[in-house]
From TrEMBL, chains A, B:
<dbReference type="Pfam" id="PF01769">
    <property type="entry name" value="MgtE"/>
</dbReference>
<dbReference type="InterPro" id="IPR006668">
    <property type="entry name" value="Mg_transptr_MgtE_intracell_dom"/>
</dbReference>
<dbReference type="Pfam" id="PF03448">
    <property type="entry name" value="MgtE_N"/>
</dbReference>
<comment type="similarity">
    <text>Belongs to the SLC41A transporter family.</text>
</comment>
<dbReference type="InterPro" id="IPR006667">
    <property type="entry name" value="SLC41_membr_dom"/>
</dbReference>
<dbReference type="GO" id="GO:0046872">
    <property type="term" value="F:metal ion binding"/>
</dbReference>
<keyword id="KW-1133">Transmembrane helix</keyword>
<comment type="subunit">
    <text>Homodimer.</text>
</comment>
<dbReference type="GO" id="GO:0015095">
    <property type="term" value="F:magnesium ion transmembrane transporter activity"/>
</dbReference>
<feature type="transmembrane region" description="Helical">
    <location>
        <begin position="316"/>
        <end position="339"/>
    </location>
</feature>
<keyword id="KW-0460">Magnesium</keyword>
<keyword id="KW-0472">Membrane</keyword>
<keyword id="KW-1003">Cell membrane</keyword>
<keyword id="KW-0813">Transport</keyword>
<dbReference type="InterPro" id="IPR046342">
    <property type="entry name" value="CBS_dom_sf"/>
</dbReference>
<dbReference type="InterPro" id="IPR000644">
    <property type="entry name" value="CBS_dom"/>
</dbReference>
<comment type="function">
    <text>Acts as a magnesium transporter.</text>
</comment>
Length: 450, 450
């Protein structure tokens, strides 16, 4: 059941392309799933990929187009005429077609739309283009099965058969009134198990979950996950049924959202992949590194202030990276837990409760770690007891401060509508570094007096 | 469309519980979705939650049970008799029932099983218990609609109606032979649009994606995502159809997998949430912190080796945290990109290509950052040019080494079947800290000679 691209297959394909053996190519590729062909095209060089793309018919290539890496899709679309692109789009669901069309430059977009054969399809696609891609409107497709509440089951089944022709997967049958306003739903199962004579108004379920066109995509994902929905209808400002979102589109949103939090925590500010170009990767990574570097300047400056400590307490400087790193690590842990909690809507209780909890947690962790540090500095590293006491108290303080920082900075950002994940990663590490060094040497000055 | 728990609602419920007004409670709660009630119970104290749980009927509580936080579910299950638990399980799909039963202590588990009313249901649940929870067998449910390839459509529809009674959502109709071996599938849409006289063997689709009972859950998730499947059949070693996995179970796997990578990167070794107990949080966080602390000891030791540099080159020690932090940041970035790439099966190309790319990338980033550092140390911080040259060369070297480390340690771990995400977070930060300090002072010794 597992498809693996073999080197043999790639070689075979390359030979067939060189000898322009289109017939053999078709035979070989027609057995494969479009997602697998997309994977193969990503492996081939660009000319070969385009060649294969032109050999296959548009029913297959349309689906392949959806699965390709962004760069390759963009390149292939550039080589296709408006008419050829329109042929691809005619094969696709409206939401997928709208996504692809939105990637085109404005002039080509209009040309492609004018070439679409199915006018209804074209209307639907144009409709979808006006929604923001991060909203329910941007996610939804127009393909759905709807019936009027005033129909009887017979009319309904007849109408549905016709509608179902255009719908790849029938999840739910939506019930609307004469104004197209969403009234409820009819499950396929009910349809299978109910006699055909029953009137619609008797069988349909009046309770139906829905979202509005402007509901943010992450909110749609949260609702569908919470209520275990495989599809959800989308209504406009008047409550009219305008589309539906299916779970497979939501899987992408969930994955992207989780990946994005991780990337931000790692100091990567755009959605990049290992296979993106060096320039794209640099754009995503460099800004955070520059920020960290500037923070580093501050730490250099702060350390410079404590230069007098070098007379007599050199060892203090050997412990600086340890204290700074521990502050960074604790801060990252705390912020990761809060950011994931906020993303999952799992942060409950009052601020005071959270403060007390984080305090106890960091105190517990801090005491254990400080004890290890004290023992280590004395027995393992052989430093005098004054140094040991200083670094131990400093570590405990830094851990408490860093963990409070890591917890409350994301919560505060979130309160003001800023993505809390921004506060993780290099930002929290760098600020905790600086704070840690400052606390450390201030405590040292108090204890050792320099 | 959005449900929000209000303080009013909670107060109202608490009053009704105190006055034991069960009837009003039922009226109030019956309008709510089980996922919303679960959210409410998580907010109430434990006695109140149990009280409500006992007031509602098992059809509703069974679903609520699934949505509760683990701790609360465990607590409530402890207070229920084996018979009461069995009543809940009778209402649930086999996969959900098996998940709950697996959480019970062995003796209670057997008692509960013996109390299950529906013997077929009980058999299915017991069957599911023997699969590892991280495999397709552990994810699958027994509820599915299957037809024999030798039937005609009429028998088929009759049989299906009966089977569909037990299945919440019909995704696909699977076709099997006389030995129950999976042969293909029949789409509901085909059924809607095909005349009832057609023989099954004429209409069913022979190509069907499936997984085996021992396929790992992340692999199932990958396949379902790649091929955009909403359900996938599961076969045993003989190719017999034994269950099906639906996309909603996979959504959890995908989310958990992405969250887990992020948590590991943040130095959290177990799946914990902000609302878990202090002890659970400590267990998840402390081991990584201890590891980082031990790494810190090494950095103290290494810095101690370069003590002679303090005579005349004090400034070197002011730059230590900056160099170490930059190494850590770059390493975390590189490893995050690789870990996500490995998780998404998006790492292609040879090791040599990747090496060259990472080298160019880190060289580009490193040169820009070093230039900033050089200018900053000279103009901003006012250090002499020798120090500037030293820290600049050190930073460039550290960035290159850290980025290679961050890239190749995960790849190597992955090759040996170890979770590459383990190499991110505190591990990569700490080792890059130590390495960074070592490289920095070695270069300083070469240039400044101490």
């Amino acid at each position: 059941m597992e498809f693996k691209i073999s080197k043999d297959l790639i070689q075979q394909l390359e030979q067939l392309i060189q000898s322009k053996n289109d017939q053999q190519l078709e035979v070989l590729l027609n057995d494969l799933h479009h997602a697998d062909i997309a994977e193969i095209l990503d492996e081939l060089d660009f000319d070969e990929a385009t060649y294969i793309f032109k050999v296959l018919d548009s029913e297959k290539t349309a689906e392949i187009l959806l699965e390709l890496e962004d760069d390759l899709r963009e390149n292939i679309l550039q080589r296709l005429s408006a008419k050829e692109i329109a042929e691809e789009l005619d094969e696709l669901d409206t939401d997928d077609a709208a996504d692809i069309i939105a990637e085109l430059p404005q002039s080509k977009m209009e040309e492609v739309i004018s070439e679409l054969e199915d006018v209804e399809h074209a209307k639907d696609i144009v409709d979808l283009l006006r929604y923001d891609e991060d909203t329910a409107g941007g996610l939804m497709g127009k393909e759905l099965v709807k019936v009027n509440e005033n129909w009887n089951v017979l009319t309904c089944v007849k109408e549905m058969r016709q509608q179902a022709e255009h719908v790849t997967r029938v999840h739910s049958i939506y019930v609307v009134d004469d104004e197209d306003r969403l009234k409820g739903r009819l499950s396929l199962k009910d349809l299978l198990t109910t006699s055909t004579k029953t009137p619609i108004s008797d069988v349909y379920i009046k309770k139906v979950d829905y979202v509005k066109v402007d509901t943010p995509d992450v909110e749609v994902a949260r609702i569908m996950q919470k209520y275990d929905l495989e599809a959800i209808p989308v209504v406009d400002e008047m409550g009219r049924l305008v589309g539906r979102i299916t779970i497979d589109d939501i899987v992408d949103v969930i994955k992207e959202e989780a990946d994005k939090d991780y990337q931000l925590a790692a100091g990567i500010s755009q959605d990049v992949e290992a296979d993106d170009s060096i320039l794209e990767l640099t754009r995503a990574r460099l800004p955070w590194l520059v920020l960290a570097l500037l923070g580093g300047f501050v730490s250099v400056k702060v350390l410079g202030l404590f230069e007098p400590a070098m007379e007599g307490h050199k060892a203090l400087f050997f412990f600086t990276p340890l204290i700074a790193a521990m502050g960074g690590n604790v801060g990252v842990q705390s912020s990761a837990i809060i950011v994931q909690g906020l993303a999952n809507n799992a942060i409950t209780g009052s601020i005071i409760q959270r403060l007390l909890k984080e305090l106890s947690l960091s105190l517990l962790n801090g005491l254990i770690l400080s004890a290890i540090l004290f023992a280590g500095s004395y027995f393992l590293l052989g430093y005098e007891i004054h140094i040991g006491i200083t670094v131990t108290i400093a570590l405990l303080s830094v851990i408490i401060i860093a963990s409070l920082n890591g917890t409350f900075i994301p919560i505060i950002l979130n309160k003001y509508g800023i993505d809390p994940a921004l506060a993780t990663g290099p930002f929290i590490t760098t600020s905790n570094d600086i704070l840690g060094i400052l606390i450390y040497f201030s405590i040292a000055r108090l204890i050792l007096g320099f």
